Structure formats: C-alpha cells, structure tokens
C-alpha cells in the first residue's frame, strides 16, 4: 500500500458514525443505485449531481426528493460522497474538487472505478478526506432492479488499512460481498472482469446475429440453455469444460465455419480466429487437444483470415 495513504488519517477514521449523509457526483447508472441501497441500510442520501437530462431523471427516480445540485454542493452537504464518473474523468474530478476546497477533512470519498485503487484519490487525502475504492462487480441498468441485484454482488475493495473495516462494512450494508484487491493489482483485476463480462456480450451478440442469418427466429431462446450450461461448467471446471471443434481438433469443421463467415459475416472472422487460437492454446496446454490433431487445426487458423 502507498505509504501516503496511511499518513495523516485521523484516529477516528475506522470509527465512523453508524449513519451518514450520502451524496452522488455523477448520476449515471451506478451512483444512484448505490445511494439507494445505502438508504435501505439507514443512511440518508441528501444530494446528487448529473449533467445530462437522462442522469437527472435517473437520480429523481431512484432518489426521490434528493436535491440535484453542482458537484461542489454535493460535497458540502454529504459526509460520504460517491464519485461515480467514467474512469477517464475521475482523476481530473478529484483534483478539481480538492483544488477548489470542496473536500472536507474527515469526509469519506468513495469511487467505484474498477481500474483505480485509492492512489487516484490522493488530492482528496491531502485535503483530509478518507479514500475508499469500492467497485461493484455487476453491470447496471440504471433502474431499481440494480438495487436488488446488489444482494450477493462482489465488490473489489481497496482502502488504507485503517479504513479497511469501514470499507468492507459499507459493502456489506449494500448487500455485497467485499473482496480485497491490492492497489497494484487493480488494473489486472479490472482486465479480468472486462474479458469475462464485456467481451462476453460481444460474443453473444455475434452468435445471435449468425443464428438469425441462418434462419433461427429466436436465437436468444436457443442460446440461453447452451450458454447457461457453458458458463456454469466453466466456472466449476475451468479449461476442463472446453468443448467443440477447436478443443477436439476438428480442422475440417473449423475450416467450414471460416468459409461461411467470410461469405455471410466477414466482420466476425477476426474474433472467431482470435478466440479459436486462444482456445486451441488452452486445450493443448491442458492435454485436451491432442498434438496429432493440433497441427492441421493450427494450419487452418493460420491461413483462416487470408483466403
């Protein structure tokens, strides 16, 4: 942990009041849902800021009666401030709030970025704030259903050691499960989540497009049981759950796939090849793909995008 994160913390840092006033800076999909869940735990949302009309409507729906004000005013009113802005905007926001004197000593500054730990909150720390990084491992819709989905949701938690118990307690109050992530591991942690969730959406969308082109009326209904079983097997068994022509080394089938993709969906060829090569590597390493079948398969993959 960065030594600066332990310097200057007040002795009462880990002994916060049981109930806090809560503010949200950045009323996107995440902030209002977290504030609403904190309200259910007895905390009191008092202010939120949002730029777009959509964010303001979202805040009004999830946090009825809560004042919509400028970011500096959110900090003036709240003891716990949720900074729920895009990753790239977070450093500048923290620097700006600290430079203008909006940050108060003893104030809890909580960001929800997966990429960053608490180093990004150093300007606030120097102003006396208490920095926490609480990243909910969930996709958000911006509706009340998100509050329900927080039950059992993992949170990637990074905080100065004196604040670790307070950070984990806030997660538990929101219905989540705290998972400690070291500051230096945050980018790797976030990359793992992006591969698992963000890329999954792209793959599923591509699969649905291909099935629709093949005449399947409801590709979602067809894929649901298959993908659900594949996900469950993968979470339980890792590489042992690999199935399909690549894992078996069926070079002819893979070649046929590529031929069809080049005709009907050329934009899907690159992703098919990338995932097939990665699958082949893992199947080889686990012993599932036999070397005698691998050579022909890898040859098809090597020339797959060049025909």
From TrEMBL:
Positions of the DUF2520 domain: 153-279
Putative oxidoreductase/dehydrogenase Rossmann-like domain sequence ranges: 14-136
Pfam families registered for this protein in UniProt: DUF2520 (PF10728), Rossmann-like (PF10727)
Entries under InterPro entries matching the protein: 6-PGluconate_DH-like_C_sf (IPR008927), DUF2520 (IPR018931), NAD(P)-bd_dom_sf (IPR036291), OxRdtase/DH_put_Rossmann_dom (IPR019665), TM1727-like_C_sf (IPR037108)
SUPFAM superfamilies xrefs: 6-phosphogluconate dehydrogenase C-terminal domain-like (SSF48179), NAD(P)-binding Rossmann-fold domains (SSF51735)
Cited PANTHER family: CONSERVED HYPOTHETICAL ALANINE AND LEUCINE RICH PROTEIN
Name this polypeptide is given: DUF2520 domain-containing protein
């Amino acid at each position: 942990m960065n030594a600066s994160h332990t310097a200057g913390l007040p002795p009462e840092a880990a002994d916060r009041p049981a109930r806090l006033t809560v503010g949200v800076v950045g009323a996107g999909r995440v902030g209002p849902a977290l504030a609403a869940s904190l309200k259910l735990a007895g905390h009191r949302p008092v202010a939120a800021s949002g730029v777009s009309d959509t964010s303001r409507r979202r805040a009004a729906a999830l946090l009825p009666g809560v004042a919509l004000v400028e970011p500096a005013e959110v900090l003036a009113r709240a003891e716990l401030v949720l900074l729920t802005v895009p990753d790239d905007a977070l450093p500048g926001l923290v620097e700006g709030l600290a430079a203008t004197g909006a940050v108060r000593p003893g104030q809890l500054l909580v960001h929800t970025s997966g990429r960053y730990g608490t180093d990004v909150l150093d300007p606030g720390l120097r102003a006396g704030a208490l920095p926490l990084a609480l990243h909910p491992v969930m996709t958000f819709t911006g509706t009340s259903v998100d509050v329900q989905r927080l039950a059992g949701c993992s949170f990637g938690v990074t905080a100065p050691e004196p604040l670790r118990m307070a950070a984990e307690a806030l997660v538990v109050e929101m219905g989540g499960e705290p998972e400690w992530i070291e500051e230096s591991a945050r980018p790797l942690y976030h990359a793992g989540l992006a591969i698992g969730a963000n890329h999954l959406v792209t793959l599923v969308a591509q699969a649905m497009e291909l099935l629709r082109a093949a005449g399947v009326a409801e590709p979602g209904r067809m894929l649901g049981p298959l993908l659900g079983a594949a996900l469950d097997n993968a979470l339980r068994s890792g590489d042992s759950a690999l199935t399909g022509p690549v894992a078996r080394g069926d070079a002819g089938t893979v070649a046929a796939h590529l031929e069809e993709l080049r005709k009907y969906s050329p934009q899907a060829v690159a992703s098919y090849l990338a995932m097939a090569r990665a699958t082949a590597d893992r199947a080889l390493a686990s012993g599932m793909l036999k070397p005698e079948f691998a050579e022909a398969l890898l040859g098809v993959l090597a020339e797959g995008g060049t025909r």
